[in-house]
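#lab-general

N.A. 3:47 PM
ok so I finally got the sequence cleaned up, no stray characters, all 140 residues accounted for. can someone with queue access submit it? mine expired

B.Y. 3:52 PM
send it over

N.A. 3:53 PM
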Amino acid sequence: MQSLNDIDALIIDMDGVLWHGDRPQEGIEVFFAGLRRLALPFVLATNNASLTPAEYVSKLASFGVSVAEREILTSGTATAVYLSQQLVPEQTRVMVIGSSGLIEPLQQQGFILTELYAPEVDLVVCGLDRQLSWDKLASA
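B.Y. 4:20 PM
back already:
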């Protein structure tokens, strides 16, 4: 196994790696304590846009692991940052099919979020939506 001395930073997947469902992997607290002791920077990444970074911080805290929001990168956050680099958020109307993990980062970047059947929409951003409806699909 490679020495941790040769590693500058880690990108660690969360869902299915650090936990399964609501059950943390055995040794998760020891793992993160070791990273902190070594002062090894990390980013916790996920392609799951259903939760916000703050919600992941809370989930990890329930497992006895303390992380900062800046150490979490979700696909929702990445999408919002990418779009803000391509478009003028304050002038871009976005319809979202998704949950808080997609909605909040877009709001934080300054995008104008539309309601169903808005007369003008510049783009539609989709993620997991547990309240998906025909109205949302038809509107999109």
